[in-house]
Every structure is written in structure tokens, then in C-alpha cells.
DNA sequence: CATATTTAAGACTATTTATTCCTAATTAAG
DNA sequence: CTTAATTAGGAATAAATAGTCTTAAATATG
């Protein structure tokens, strides 16, 4: 069950890095993130550009430039991140994708698919980046090997 | 959240058609299924060929040939179908896909991702094709428009 | 046996997603 | 002003997924 595209996976990991290891200065460079996580610098740059466009990040060019969260990590819920990375319709997708769905009668698997989606959405909307960053810092969980 | 590939979606729908509208004779032709559901005949054929190879279906060539379930619909759980269509590792996939995962410490989202997966897996393993077929027949749910 | 029907097999094409690469714009610092 | 560092933008390439098409094999029927 592929929950996230590569964009989603890399984007999330890179963001979590930023949250978990905030720089001394105002901005953290993409190069440092991608190098540390072993991700493609160009790919991460592309992903972050979109997050910047969507207002989740702010960026600054030039020496000692980089990216930073647009608001405190406490106020950014995983849900917002996922939607930014995967599209706002992320939780609207259906399991078997019937034409004209959502209308009249549901398909055979609608009920528990909805349950599962709702649960995940709920979890995501309750989890802040700050919390995850803290877990990473205390090494309760890990971001790489 | 894309849960199933096109192969998975079409395959499941086509299978459910077979279960819900079993033929008078022993086999149901792929042509009838694909025409009725508005799916590509060739694509469905391709998908079914794999299900046949995996022992979920049996096929028979020639006039009044077609495909049939290899065992009673009561004994086929959705889980088996999904795994056949999407690969046995379907429920092993992880959310952010860290290298060497499952080993030492989990990543930040492992816990609730596991919950969700377990729930879905459980639902799937409790739901038989027979049950879904019955729901379709009684029009409690629908397979197409 | 001849023909029509149906699945099997796999090549081929198209579309989407993933990834890399090149060039421009911005800015700090000497 | 020059240079180096950094993100911005978008083109180009690669890989994976989706979908089509052609030919072969099997089988029923007359
Ligand atoms: S009923 Fe629900 S799961 Fe089924 S096709 Fe519609 S939206 Fe998707
Ligand atoms: S800890 Fe779990 S969710 Fe996180 S990368 Fe590993 S398997 Fe995936």
C-alpha cells in the first residue's frame, strides 16, 4: 500500500530534518539537508520550492540563505504537510475509483475504507511537526540509518 | 491516498462482477465483464491472466469458455485478492520508506501507520468475495453507474 | 476438417512519475 | 564591483505504470 509518492516521502523527511535540527542561523540550506539524508539535492530543491510557493516554507537566496518554516513547528500539523505534498484531495481518493462516485450508492468497500481514511486523517491532524521533531531529537524515532 | 493501482482497481471490480453475476454456464467470458463494466477488454484479460497464474481463477479457452473462480467465493477473502493484484508485500510498505527499516528504531510515523494498516488488513481478511457479491446483488452497494 | 470463439503471450505505445541538469536571479562579503 | 553561495525555474532524461494491439493456442460445433 503505497501511501506517499516519492515527493511526499522525501519532502516529509526533509521537512522533519529541518524541524528536528534547526539551524543556529535563521535559514538551513537545502544542501545540508539533502547531503545529510542522502537525498538528491535537486529533487529536494524542487519539492521545497513548491512548499515555499504554498506558504509552508520561506526561502532566502544567497550565502547563508536557505529555507525555514513559515510558522512555528507547533502550528504545523502533519495533515497540512501531507496535503501540500500530495495534493488537497489526498484524503478524498477512493479505493476502487468508480466513475461518478460519492453520489448515490457506495461501492462494496466504501465503509471500511472511509473508516481507515478517517483514522489516518485524524492522526495526521493531531500530530504537529514540533512533536515529531522532538521525538527525533530524543532519538525515540529516527529519520535515517 | 492512492490505495490501489489501476490493475488493482480494475481487477477487483472485474472479479466482483464475476462473483455478483455468476453465469449460467461454468465460465463467464472476459468480454462480457469488460463490456458491462466499461473497462478495456485487453487490460482486463491481462490482469485476469495473472490471477489465473496465481491460482485464483481458472480459465478455459474456446467457445463458451471464459474464467471462473478457482474456489467458492465464500472462501476467497478480499485480502487474498488484493495481495494477488498488488503483490504480497502490499501491507508491508511503509509510509516514508526509510532505508533498512523495520530494524532498530522506527520512524516518527510508524506507530499510527501500523495501526491503520492493521485495521485495513483486518477488514480485508474478514471480508469474503461472497459477502461483497451478495451486497452487490441486493443493490446495497454498486459496481458501476 | 473448417470455422468461430475465446484465452495466452508478449511486443509495442502512451502517460505519468521520478530524477537530473542547466541557467538565471538574489544576496552576502571581500 | 567581483565572487561565491544559494534558491528559482524549467528543460531534459529515465523509469515505472498504464493501456493497446497482434499473433498464437485451445476448443466447440457443424
Ligand atoms: S463508494 Fe467509496 S470506496 Fe467505493 S468507489 Fe465510491 S468513493 Fe470509492
Ligand atoms: S518506521 Fe515504519 S513507517 Fe517509518 S520508515 Fe520504517 S516501516 Fe516505514
Give a description of the structure.
2 copies of one chain form a homodimer. The two termini of chain A are 23 Å apart. Chain A is 49% helix and 6% strand. The first copy, chain A, has helices spanning 6-20, 30-37, 41-53, 78-86, 110-126, 129-137, and strands at residues 57-60, 66-69. In chain A, a hairpin with a 5-residue loop joins strand 1 and strand 2. In chain A, helix 4 (78-86) packs across helix 5 (110-126). The mean pLDDT of chain A is 90. A two-stranded antiparallel sheet of chain A has the order 1-2. Chain A has 145 residues and is mainly α. The first copy, chain A, has one domain: Arc Repressor Mutant, subunit A. The interface between A and B is large, with 47 and 47 residues. One iron/sulfur cluster binds at residues 94-98, 101-102, 106-107, 109-110, 113 of chain B. The first copy, chain A, binds a DNA duplex (30 and 30 nucleotides) through helix 3.
Amino acid at each position: 500500500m503505497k501511501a506517499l509518492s516519492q515527493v511526499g516521502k522525501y519532502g516529509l523527511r526533509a521537512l522533519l530534518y529541518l524541524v528536528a535540527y534547526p539551524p543556529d542561523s535563521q535559514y538551513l540550506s537545502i544542501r545540508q539537508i539533502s547531503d545529510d539524508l542522502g537525498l538528491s539535492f535537486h529533487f529536494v530543491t524542487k519539492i521545497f520550492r513548491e512548499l515555499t510557493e504554498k506558504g509552508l516554507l520561506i526561502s532566502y537566496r544567497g550565502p547563508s540563505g536557505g529555507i525555514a518554516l513559515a510558522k512555528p513547528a507547533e502550528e504545523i500539523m502533519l495533515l497540512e504537510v501531507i496535503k501540500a505534498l500530495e495534493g488537497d484531495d489526498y484524503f478524498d481518493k477512493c479505493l476502487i475509483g468508480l466513475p461518478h462516485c460519492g453520489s448515490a450508492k457506495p461501492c462494496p468497500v466504501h465503509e471500511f475504507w472511509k473508516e481507515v481514511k478517517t483514522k489516518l486523517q485524524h492522526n495526521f491532524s493531531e500530530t504537529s511537526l514540533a512533536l515529531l521533531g522532538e521525538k527525533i531529537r530524543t532519538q525515540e524515532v529516527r529519520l535515517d540509518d
